[in-house]
Amino acid sequence: MTENEDATYLGLDFSTQQLKGVIVNKNLEVIHETNVQFDSVLPEFRTHSGVVRQDKKTVTAPVLMWVKALDLLLDQLKVCGADFSQIAALSGSAQQHGTVYWQVGAEETLKTLDPDSFLHTQLASAFSVTSSPVWMDSSTSLQCRQLEEHVGGAQKLAEISGSRAYERFSAAQIMKIAQSKPSTYANTERISLVSSFACSLFLGRYAPIDLSDGSGMNLLDIHSKSWSQDCLKACAEDLASRLGEPVPSHSDLGCVSDYMVERHSFNPSCRVIAFTGDNPSSLAGMTLRPGDVAVSLGTSDTLFLPLTQPPTLPEGHVLINPVDSDAYMALLCFKNGSLTRERIRNFVAEKSWERFSSLLNSTPRGNFGNFGLYYDAQEIIPFVQGDFRWDKSNSSVTKFTPETEVRALLEGQFIAKRAHAEDLGFIVGKDSRILATGGGSANKEVLQVLADCFNTNVYTMTPRYSPIKDKSVSQSLGR
Ligand code: XUL
Question: Are the C-beta atoms of 284 and 273 separated by less than 8 Å?
Fold first, then answer.
């Protein structure tokens, strides 16, 4: 497409609970924005918070739900008045680690889609695994130990891939499928991450895995930026051909598919840029400077920061930086984020954030010495589950008053983040900035607790809706 003053750009986010689409102009002003909530809009897939809990440890999401959500989202954007012919380029982000299994012959289907029908009807039998394992899954401890043993231990695996073996990472998930369903694995011609799967729907062929999201698999050598032969071998037979070659996260992959042009009137020269994981995308979008730490408060809570060199971390992850493939980023992920905050809010604050905030404001910082840690699902760091409460004499108790519970929850969540970050050697000093993002960062009272627990200033980004504000960092909460 030639230089066009009216050019727009489409961004997609395939997150755990919803699919979101945003169209911005060349000044990054949001022109259209819409979303599809999986549970309420697509109830036929029977998800809760976007996932299906098969048992306490096994958590998956139906692949066709994501495809159908895209059919709906594109139609919704058109109803909002979006003109797809003006879109010069598109890209996207997605929940990390989840794997999508394309059946033998599926790429041929992708390349020959009929513009007269929906994607979800045509791709109904394109997947050899119909419900994809996602990042909330913790059912692969056995495969994690096997992988670490094969490469020479947890430390060695962390040196190679940036992380010791983690249950939700793709290697252990692929290994579990190859071991427990060998015919399903044999009938799989390609394995995508959720990000590269979503990108493939726009490209009309298999999109490569990008280096940044690819570092969340326990399969990529983060130094050579190619698949580690040792890890591949430990995981499953003939895996390299099923993964394809990884590419830098900002790669231009070519033009949008004929299907998108004919069905949705995309411009045939609209470029498709590699999709990546949600955390790398946030790092890119927040333009962090040295010393900054980002805290994302979403379905998962994460903490991440840019790095020039890759340390070997005993816990947490080192990923390749999505903006500069020679640099890195550190990532800590806590599974019990917004769903746990909502559970406590529903229990003690009549499902109201206002009531939650007023309970919070009725207790002082430090909560009179009361402290709590709440893990609804099997946590990642530390690997525990359950509610734990202590009073000021450090005795374990089973119950708090509503106001004590609310503060104990937030202080527990944020002090744990600080403690784990400091354990890894990340020092939040007086000149540091914490940049908060994600749904939970909309609540000022919650951010104040974050500022108090880290004893530093917390900033949020202002989305650039009209009227447009100049400053991207608009709000500062004092210590
Ligand atoms: C990161 C992680 C989650 C997912 C879901 O390691 O597991 O943050 O990306 O958002």
Answer: no
CB distance 340 to ligand 1 below 6 Å: no
Where helices occur in 314-435 by DSSP H, the ranges are 338-348, 353-361, 402-423
Compute the residue count for the chain: 479
Q: Tell me the pTM.
A: 0.94
- pLDDT at position 465: 44
Is the separation of the CB atoms in 397 and 391 below 8 Å?
yes
Give the residue whose CA is nearest to atom 1 of ligand 1. Answer: 333
- CA-CA distance, 67 to 120, in Å (whole number)? 5
Strands 473-477 and 457-461: antiparallel
Which residues partner with 50 through β-bridges? Answer: none
The per-residue pLDDT for range 77-96, each reduced to its tens digit, is 999 999 999 999 999 999 99
Distance of alpha carbon 175 from alpha carbon 140, whole angstroms: 9
Ligand 1 lined by 278 (C-beta under 6 Å): yes
Give yes or no for residue 317 having a pLDDT over 90: yes
Residue-wise pLDDT tens digits, 444-460: 999 999 999 999 999 99
DSSP annotation string for 110-147: HHT--TTS-HHHHTTT-BSSSEEE-TT----HHHHHHH
